[in-house]
Amino acid sequence: MITLQENEKIYLSKRRHKFVLWKRIIPIFFLFLIIIIVGTTVIFSDVQWPNWLVDFWSELTEISLKSFLLFMLSLLFLIFWIVLFVVITNYYLDCWIVTSERTIHTELKSLFNRVVSMVQHDKIQDVTVEVRGVLPTFFRYGDLYIQTAGGFRHFVFRQIPDPHRTKEIIFKAQKEFLISRKGRH
């Protein structure tokens, strides 16, 4: 949980571009569709164990091939469901927040490993935007790198929408932070 300091305002909160999420989800949906098609085909067909396999392992006649295949398809369906859950959770919990005092980066490394790091605006030395490829250019998303003076070295905003606007907001927040800091001292 991120706690804001007194008089700290949030200027911007970003997640990865939605196109990136759909790019990861669509193949999973196609695999779900294949599982459903194969599953209905197995349910409505009369499948038997191959003779060579029954000759090799005679106990297979006690197990229905249809039941075995449905079990395996259900198991595969469950695995794809878990992968879909992890992809959506990773998308939702990776977040970048620009406030009036600092920039905060939260990233889900694995399901139970979350990293939260932040940099004060006076530590920011350089902000670089990188948009590579046709799809990122067309959908207007890319990576934003923040070079810092501290020990962390740099922050990376990966695949965020409109990175150029984000860069401008970070510079604006940095400028306001430095002006307010001079006013206090």
Q: How would you describe the overall organization of this protein?
A:
- This protein has 185 residues and is α+β, with helices and mostly antiparallel strands.
- The chain folds into two domains: 23-90; 96-184, PH-domain like, CATH 2.30.29.
- The chain contains five helices and seven strands, in the order E-H-H-H-E-E-E-E-H-E-E-H.
- The protein has helices at 18-43, 51-56, 65-93, 134-139, 163-184; strands spanning 10-14, 95-99, 102-110, 113-120, 124-130, 141-148, 154-161.
- Strand 6 and strand 7 (154-161) form a beta hairpin.
- The radius of gyration is 25 Å and the shape is elongated.
- The chain starts with 9 loop residues before the first strand and ends with a helix.
- The mean pLDDT is 87.
Work out the helix count. 5
Query: Which segments are poorly predicted (pLDDT under 50) over 5 or more consecutive residues?
Result: none
What portion of residues is helical?
A: 40-55%
What is the CA-based Rg, rounded?
A: 25 Å
CATH overall fold name of the largest domain: PH-domain like
Strand order of the largest sheet: 1-2-3-4
- Assign an overall shape: elongated
- Total DSSP E strands: 7
Please provide the ordered H/E string of secondary-structure elements. Answer: EHHHEEEEHEEH
C-alpha termini separation: 31 Å
Q: Let me know the largest β-sheet.
A: 4 strands, antiparallel
Q: What value does the average pLDDT take?
A: 87
CATH class of the largest domain: Mainly Beta
User: Could you tell me the strand content as a percent range?
Assistant: 25-35%
- Structural class assignment: alpha+beta
Quickly count the domains. 2
CATH architecture of the largest domain: Roll
